[in-house]
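Sequence, please.
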C-alpha cells in the first residue's frame, strides 16, 4: 500500500466492500476526487463471500433500493467489467416440509409484493420445475433471484471506480481523524489523510470506526458460513428455507452454541456460473467454518438429496452488518460534521447496497432527494465523542 501523494481528496471512504466501492464509483463518476482505504482486500468481507443471490428484500422500505440496484447492475453488465446480471431472474423457491406455512407465506408476500407473483407448488408440479428438490416438499415460487458469483459485483464496481479515477489503498486499517465536533479525514498507518468528507462503509465493523468507545452499536455482526459444493445436477433456481426471509429482516437473537450439531441454520442453495453455495448460519460470533460444513451439508440434503454425497470444495465465513431494525444507516452522522454512514445492509447488501451507496454519494454531492427517514443514519442517535 502506498499513501504517497493522494493529495487532499474530496472524499475518503473506509471499507472496500460493495457499499464502499459503490460510493467510490458514484462519487468519482460525479467528478469528485476519492480515496478508498481497505484494510485487507476489496471484497474481503461479506461482499466477496456471500451466497450470491441478488433478490427482492421483502421489506417495502428497501424495494426502491433493490430496483435501483438492478438498474446499476444492468449498466455494469453492459460495460463488460466481468460482472453479468442474468437477463431474467432464475426464480426464488422458498421451501418447507409442510404446505400450510408456504400457503400463508405466499398470501402475505402477495399482499405486499404482488409483482413477485407468489405461486405455491407441491408434489409433481414442484419437482417438474426443480427436479433437484426432495420429494414431499412444498415451495412458494417468486419472480426474483438472480444468481451471481459472490465477489463479482464488488470487484467490477471497484474496477469501474478506479477507471474513473478513484484511488483504492489496500493493506492498512483506517480510523477517523477528528478535530472538535468534526471529522477532517482519516488516520492511515499512523499518518493523517485529510479529506473534505469521510464515508464509513466498513460493514459490521463500522460502529468500531465511528465510535471506538464501543457505546454506539446500531449495527452488529451476524456471522454466516457458506459451503462451496460440487453438484452434478445443480438446481437452476435460488432455493431458501422458509423463515430465512424473517430472520433476515428481523435480525437474530440466538446465543452461540458450543457444538456444531446444535448451531441453528437456515438452508439456502445458489448456483452461479457453475459454482454452488450452500448456506448458512446466523450467529453472533465468528464460527469455525470447517466444523460446520458437514452439518450444513447433512441438513441441506433433506431439501436437495444429492448434497449428501456432494464434495466440498471450500468453506467460508463472513458477517452480515445487521442493524437493529434490519435497515441500513445512510447519510450524515448526527453531530459529527463531515462524517457519513453507509452501512448496515444486513443480509441484503448485494441486492440493495449499491443503491444505498448512491443515496450517500448524492447527499455528499448535494444532489437529488433527501435520504428517506427509515434509512437515515440519524435514527440511531448520536455516537459518543
Ligand atoms: C453468509 C452470508 C450470505 C449472504 N448472502 C447474500 C446474498 O445472497 N444476497 C445479498 O444481497 N446479500 C447477501 N449477504 C449480505 C451481504 O453480503 C452484505 O450485506 C454486504 O456484503 C455488506 O457489504 P458492506 O460493503 O457493507 O460490508 P463488507 O463487505 O463487510 O465490507 C466492509 C469492508 O471494510 C473493511 N474494513 C473494516 N474496518 C476497516 C478499517 N478500519 N479500515 C479499512 N477497512 C476496513 C473490511 O475489511 C471489509 O472489506 C450475505 C451475507 C452473509 C454473511
Amino acid at each position: 500500500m502506498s499513501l504517497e501523494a493522494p493529495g487532499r481528496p474530496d472524499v475518503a471512504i473506509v471499507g472496500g466492500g460493495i457499499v464502499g466501492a459503490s460510493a467510490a464509483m458514484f462519487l468519482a463518476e460525479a467528478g469528485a476526487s476519492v480515496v478508498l482505504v481497505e484494510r485487507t482486500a476489496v471484497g474481503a468481507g461479506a461482499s466477496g463471500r456471500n451466497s450470491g443471490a441478488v433478490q427482492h428484500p421483502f421489506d417495502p422500505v428497501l424495494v426502491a433500493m433493490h430496483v435501483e440496484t438492478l438498474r446499476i447492475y444492468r449498466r455494469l453488465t453492459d460495460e463488460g467489467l466481468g460482472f453479468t446480471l442474468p437477463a431474467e431472474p432464475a426464480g426464488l423457491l422458498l421451501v418447507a416440509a409442510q404446505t400450510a406455512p408456504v400457503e400463508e407465506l405466499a398470501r402475505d408476500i402477495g399482499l405486499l409484493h404482488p409483482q413477485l407473483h407468489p405461486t405455491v407448488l407441491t408434489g409433481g408440479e414442484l419437482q417438474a420445475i426443480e427436479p433437484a428438490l426432495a420429494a414431499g416438499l412444498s415451495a412458494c415460487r417468486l419472480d426474483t433471484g438472480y444468481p451471481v458469483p459472490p465477489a463479482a459485483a464488488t470487484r467490477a464496481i471497484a474496477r469501474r471506480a478506479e477507471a474513473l479515477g478513484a484511488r483504492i489503498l489496500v493493506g492498512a486499517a483506517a480510523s477517523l481523524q477528528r478535530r472538535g465536533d468534526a471529522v477532517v479525514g482519516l488516520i492511515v498507518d499512523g499518518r493523517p489523510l485529510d479529506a473534505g468528507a469521510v464515508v464509513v462503509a466498513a460493514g459490521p465493523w463500522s460502529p468500531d470506526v465511528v465510535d471506538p468507545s464501543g457505546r454506539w452499536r446500531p449495527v452488529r455482526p451476524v456471522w454466516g458460513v457458506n459451503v462451496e459444493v460440487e453438484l452434478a445436477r445443480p438446481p437452476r433456481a435460488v432455493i431458501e428455507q422458509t423463515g430465512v426471509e424473517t430472520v433476515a429482516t428481523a435480525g437474530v437473537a440466538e446465543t452461540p452454541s458450543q457444538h456444531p450439531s446444535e448451531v441453528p441454520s437456515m438452508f439456502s442453495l445458489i448456483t452461479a456460473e457453475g459454482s454452488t453455495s450452500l448456506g448458512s448460519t446466523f450467529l453472533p460470533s465468528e464460527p469455525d467454518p470447517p466444523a460446520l460444513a458437514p452439518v450444513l451439508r447433512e441438513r441441506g440434503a433433506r431439501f436437495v438429496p444429492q448434497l449428501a454425497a456432494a464434495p466440498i470444495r471450500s468453506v467460508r465465513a463472513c458477517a452480515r452488518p445487521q442493524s437493529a431494525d434490519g435497515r441500513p444507516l445512510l447519510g450524515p452522522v448526527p453531530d459529527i460534521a463531515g462524517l457519513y454512514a453507509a452501512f448496515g445492509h444486513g443480509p441484503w447488501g448485494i441486492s440493495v447496497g449499491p443503491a444505498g451507496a448512491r443515496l450517500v454519494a448524492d447527499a455528499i454531492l448535494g444532489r437529488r432527494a433527501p435520504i428517506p427517514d427509515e434509512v437515515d443514519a440519524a435514527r440511531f442517535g448520536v455516537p459518543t465523542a
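Residues 39 and 171 are 5 Å apart (CA to CA).
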